[in-house]
Amino acid sequence: MLANHMTSAEINRYLEHELDQNRCAEMDTHLTACPACRARVERAARLDRALRALPRTQPPSELAARIGATIEARVKQEQARRARVPVIAVATFFSILLALWFCFELNLAFQMSGVSDFWAMFISYSDVLSTDSLDALLAVLEALPLSEIVLTSCALLTVGVLAQQLIESLRPRALQFK
Amino acid sequence: MASSDEFLLAQYKQGNLQTFRELVARYTAPIYNLAYRFLRDPMEAENVTQETFLRVVMALERVRLDIPFKPYIFRIAVNLCHDLARKKRPVPFSDLGMPDHDAIESLADDAPALWERLENEELAARVNAALDDLPAPYQTVLMLRYVEDLSYAEIAQTLNLPLNTVRTHLRRAKQQLRAKLAQSSDA
User: Fold this and answer.
1) What are the counts of helices (DSSP H) followed by strands (DSSP E) for chain B?
2) Cα separation, A57 vs B33, whole angstroms
3) What's the pLDDT tens digit per position in B85-126?
4) Is A9 on the interface with B (CB under 8 A)?
5) Taking the complete model, does pTM exceed 0.95, yes or no?
6) Most buried of the four, A125, B18, B29, B93, by CB within 10 Å?
7) Which residues on A lie below 8 Å from B128 (Cβ)?
8) Domain ranges of chain B
9) How far is CA A4 from CA A10, A36, A153, B57, B106, in A?
10) Mapped to the 3 state alphabet, what secondary structure does A46-66 carry?
11) 8 Å CB contact of A63 and B28
12) What is the CATH number of domain B5-88?
């Protein structure tokens, strides 16, 4: 028994009361008879006590209150952000409808002004563009439905801005670290 | 009797904001102390403490806690500290290899070293200094066990390690600590 000295792992488990009752009783018996192991256990226990006595650094007295206030402000900010989500979602939805409507109108305007026909002809017969047809090209440019083009562009831009806002609102906020 | 952390969290989730303040009051000092030990900078320790609570609050609705609150909040704090410490000291985690492990064990366990004859106050100061020289994972387990008083199971949950690995880390951490103490006493 005496030759069977305790290992460091056993000493740790003994000091941490992690051994079962039987093993603990065996250790106690061994320690009564073995001064070498007793000394090792005492040294290990002293190191444990020194570790438990390590100085604690106290935070500034107002830190907890400051953190509490920051968190409440952040939670309110978060709640406000979430409250905006449905409004932005509805606005995005209607802006998409509006943009589709303007696209449809723009298409109609292209057809009525003959620009679509000219474009189709140009695609099919690319050699149609001659010196004579330059006047036709200028006429087509003049016939472009500018107001529809501007309105459709604005509508598409609105969709883009609102969709971006919506994605920002839905994405969890990145915190300071990582 | 003080309410449990989990009870306070449940109350907070039901809309009682005051209960989170109680959790903040309960954990500010331990988290700050842990962060200060790692970072040695009061401002960064304050930042980490605040950031830890913010992360807890922001994650509460998305995350279902599968571990108790105490290991959970320490896990966040430890990760933040390690991230920041890694930025300041680039390779703290690589020291985990222990090629001279047996040598340290025999050095620590045979005859009483000089440091073991020191007075308690002197020993405490030496331990405090020697702890700073340990690799970050060993500092972490020692801090969590002996300063923050987490159980082995809680340390395992905090560090996401098997229980036996925690035991091994703690044992090796103390062996390294003894070796550092012996070196500083012999010097």
Assistant:
1) 9, 0
2) 5
3) 877 765 444 444 444 444 344 434 545 566 666 777 788 888
4) yes
5) no
6) B29
7) 54-55
8) 5-88, 95-186
9) 12, 11, 88, 53, 16
10) HHHHHHHCCCCCCCCCCHHHH
11) yes
12) 1.10.1740.10
Helices (H), B40-92: 42-60, 69-88
Q: How far apart are CA B179 and CA B138, in angstroms?
A: 13
**Which residues from B are below 8 Å from A78, CB to CB?**
58
Nearest CA to A23 out of A35, A33, A10 is that of A10
CA dist B131 and B181 (Å) reads 9
Please name the member of B17, B28, B147 whose beta carbon is closest to the beta carbon of A64. B28
- Nearest by CB to residue A68, choosing from B21, B84, B146, is B21
Residue B99 buriedness (CB in 10 A; 0-12 / 13-18 / 19+): exposed
B59-68 tens-digit pLDDT: 887 767 667 8
Averaged pLDDT, B162-179: 91
C-alpha to C-alpha distance for B135 and A87, rounded to whole angstroms: 52
Residue A124 identity (one-letter amino acid): S
For chain A, what is the mean pLDDT?
A: 83
Enter the ipTM.
0.79
Read out DSSP for B88-127?
HSS-GGGGG--TTHHHHHHHHHSSPPGGGGS-HHHHHHHH
The better pLDDT of the pair B16, A133 is held by B16
Look up residue A13 and give its amino acid.
Answer: R
d(CA B35, CA B46): 8
- Contact between B172 and B182 under an 8 Å Cβ cutoff? The reply is no
- Cα angle, residue B172 at apex, residues B170 and B178 outer, rounded to 5°: 105
Task: Give the end-to-end CA distance of chain B in Å, rounded to a whole number.
Answer: 50
Question: What CATH number labels B95-186?
Answer: 1.10.10.10
What count of residues does chain A have?
A: 178
What residue type is B111 in one-letter code?
A
Q: Which two structure tokens, joined as six digits, stand for B45? A: 């320790």
Contact A59 B175 (CB under 8 A): no
**Contact at 8 Å (CB) between A143 and A118?**
no
The answer to whether B12 contacts chain A (CB < 8 Å) is no
